[in-house]
Amino acid sequence: MIESPTRDYRYERKFLVEELDVGQVRLMVKRHPSMFYETYPPRVVNNLYLDTEEMDNYYANLSGAAERRKVRVRWYGELFGAVASPVLEFKIKSGLVGKKQSYPFPALRLDENFSQRTFQELARDSDLPDPVRHHLRTLNVVLRNNYRRWYYATKDGHYRLTVDAEMAYYRVRKFENHFINRVLDDGRVIVEMKYEKPFEPQSDRVAGFFPFRITRNSKYVTGIESVYLS
Questions:
Q1: Domain locations in the chain as residue ranges
Q2: Chain-centre distance of CA 202, in angstroms?
Q3: Per-residue pLDDT, 175
Q4: How confident is the model at residue 176 (pLDDT cuts 50, 70, 90)?
Q5: What is the spatial distance between Cα 181 and Cα 112, in angstroms, rounded to a whole number?
Q6: Which residues are registered as beta bridge partners of 73?
Q7: Is CATH 2.40.320.10 correct for 10-229?
Q8: What are the two backbone dihedrals, phi and then psi, of residue 18, each rounded to the nearest 5 degrees?
């Protein structure tokens, strides 16, 4: 098990919205009786997802295994070019709760020269803890995705909510990556409500205001199936 500074486990509820556009969803969030307000300006989230040669993380998330994880490098803003401050994240789920382990990752450049070798050299020469660096040697970069995210929280700070839209997925090859072929998933909106364990008893009341269906939607699973299996 990789040891690192870790957030406590928290609940995460995801809602898949297909019948409303992102503007309508955001208006519904603002009209919520719990008085959600925007905590940050909206921004573009970019991810590089990693998995084993056998795609163990994909299959665990696809099956809904009780213990599952995703490994990604995340940054914000520009889609391509120089990435000054990426963050390596291990997102770990145990049943209905999850936590995140985060580490600064070396600056990288996402262009046609990006490859598995590029990533492995960055990881090898990084200041990451030895167990993390050794673990990354067993993984490949398999997917790149990006989406626009809006951030909200209730006035009491007990519940946080994100709204994601304009999702795009790119296959990552072992060698040259021109990132020309992308799959757009801009017809759906993903709403995620996050809260700590003490606030679980009231969560049904907060979530019940939304006419959205709860889902196990995983952007990673959707992306893999979009670019590899379609």
A1: 10-229
A2: 25
A3: 79
A4: confident
A5: 13
A6: 48, 88
A7: yes
A8: -115, -20
